[in-house]
Structures are given as C-alpha cells and as structure tokens.
Amino acid sequence: MIEMQGVFKKYPDGNDALKGINLVVDQNEFVYIVGPSGAGKSTFMKLIYREEKPTKGQIVVNGFNIGKLKQRKIPYVRRNIGVIFQDFRLLPKLTVAENVAFAMEVIEEPKKVIRKRTNEVLSLVRLKGKANAYPSQLSGGEQQRVAIARAIVNNPSLIIADEPTGNLDPETSWGIMELLEEINFRGTTIIMATHNKEIVNKMRKRVIAIEDGVIVRDQERGEYGYEV
Ligand SMILES: Nc1ncnc2c1ncn2[C@@H]1O[C@H](COP(=O)(O)OP(=O)(O)OP(=O)(O)O)[C@@H](O)[C@H]1O
Fold first, then answer.
1. pTM
2. What is the distance of C-alpha 208 from the center of its chain?
3. Which residue has the least CA distance to atom 2 on ligand 1?
4. Distance 42 CA to ligand 1 centre (A)
5. Residues lining ligand 1, judged by CB closer than 6 Å?
6. Tens digit of pLDDT for each residue in 22-48?
7. How far is the CA of 43 from the centre of ligand 1 (A)?
8. In this model, does residue 228 exceed pLDDT 80?
9. SMART domains attached here (predicted)?
C-alpha cells in the first residue's frame, strides 16, 4: 500500500530532511516511526499524504505515484488517508458533530449519509453525548477522539498519526492507543510517529527508526530503543 524507493527530501532552504528512504508498508500494518528530534519523522509522514513532495525518488500510495501527482488528483489520494496531529486541529467554531461532518461535506456525501456516519463514528470514539459541544468545552483526550472520528469518517485505508499522544497525559494516551488499535483491527493501516517509549514498548508493533534522514532500524514487534 505504501512503497518508497530512494526517497530524498531537501527543503528549499537547503535542509536535507530525508536522504534515501526505501520501504514497503502492507495493508493493515501498524507501524511506529521513532527517532530523535529533527530526524525526519514528520517530513516522512508529510510525504505520504502529499503535504510535501519528494526531491528525488518514488513514493507510491494506494497505487498513486505521489510525487508525480497532478494538483487536481490530490484530493482523491487524501480522501483515502486520515491524518491526526499532536495539536488536534479541530475547527473551533464548529461543534463536535460539525467537525466530523465537515470532512464528509467537502466530498459532497448526501446529508442522510453524513448524519448516519457521523453518529456511527462518534459512538466508536465514545463521544455521542458531546456531539453538540464545541472543542473548547472538551478535554485534550476528548478533542483527540474527535480528531480521530474526523480522520476515519470517510473510511480511509490509511491513518497517519504524527505524535497523537504528545499533548496528553499517560492515562488518556492509553485510551487513544486502544482506539487506534481497534481501528487497525478493523482493517486500517496505521503509521504513527511517536516519542512515547512506554507505548511503543508495550504495544509491540513494527518499529522503524529514522536518524538523520535515513532508516537505521526496521523491526517486527520492535522496541522504542532510545532513552528518554
Ligand atoms: N518546512 C521546512 N523547511 C526547512 N527545513 C525543515 C522544514 N521542516 C522540517 N525541516 C528540517 O528538516 C529536518 C527534519 O525535520 P522533521 O520535522 O521531519 O523532524 P522530526 O523527526 O519530525 O522531529 P520532531 O521529533 O522534533 O518532530 C530538521 O532538520 C528540520 O529543521
């Protein structure tokens, strides 16, 4: 589902963020991306959902050659990818239900489908009771659950999560991880960048370590491997 061959990313200011990435991620894998600050993890994730373009090399996601994608085709690829950030990025003036529904409105789903599916995903993240609340009225963990609901509402085959527990306390973080595991169990591939040693060591998934723009380790049922 994701294939990278000889991928380099040099930012316009000359920063070499990635220097020759090769990897394959299959459908339904759960992959942790670990590594020191500035190693290139976020850049790696941004290339997958085409927030950034590679300077060299090939990236294929769900059969699309991401680097060569025409501007007008980008929405088709993004529709199949849910993205979750450390800082939630909800729309503050929309309610919980509206934040989730918005992701379906932009792809012009019928109103009836939107209502039904919004209810479904809010149940899944256990937030049905907060449907009419605004993000500012929610805890951090609840806001992240809304962001997860929004990410999965269009049934993406892939979720990219960039430090999804970075702003959350340990207990809340576990709740988020259980949710991501359940989503993975239902068939969605998950790629998650994290600095959370406890989570990586307990959940035992594939671990890819990036240092200074290259993959230095790729382990099944791996460990975090750094002191924090
Ligand atoms: N938009 C940008 N323009 C120029 N350089 C950038 C840009 N974004 C990132 N970089 C540089 O690219 C390198 C990799 O950054 P990246 O954000 O991918 O690292 P990271 O592993 O995600 O770090 P962290 O764990 O701190 O989030 C760093 O040297 C960073 O300064």
1. 0.95
2. 15
3. 11
4. 7
5. 11, 13, 15, 17, 35, 37-43
6. 999 999 999 999 999 999 999 999 999
7. 6
8. no
9. AAA (SM00382)
